[in-house]
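During the reporting period the student researcher (J.K.) took over the structure-prediction task from the postdoctoral fellow and processed the backlog of single-chain submissions. One of the processed entries is reproduced below for the supervisory committee.
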Amino acid sequence: MPWIALTIAGLLEIVWAYFMKQSAGFTRVGPSVVTLVAMIASFSLLGYAMRSLPLGSAYMIWTGIGALGSFILGIALLGEAATPGRLIGAGLLLAGLLILKLAS
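J.K. obtained the following structure tokens:
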């Protein structure tokens, strides 16, 4: 159950990062509310997962899911560049997360 909570927390991190961008510096109410609700839910689930998972593993996987997901959304929805260097960096991050999960 902690791994499921951690995965959902990571997915919610993607949600709040995307909506924070959409909030235009918290000047738009709707996206700002979604950002704050998703943040609270994400942190709560992370806290739950950390009850039984190691701090380093839980935090690294949580931020990794958020970083990779936000990277993908940035390319897919916001037209951000998918340069070879950025793709290699994202691939290395993904490889690191997989190794960390397998080692846990």
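The committee noted the following: The chain has one domain: 2-103.
J.K. will present the remaining backlog at the next meeting.
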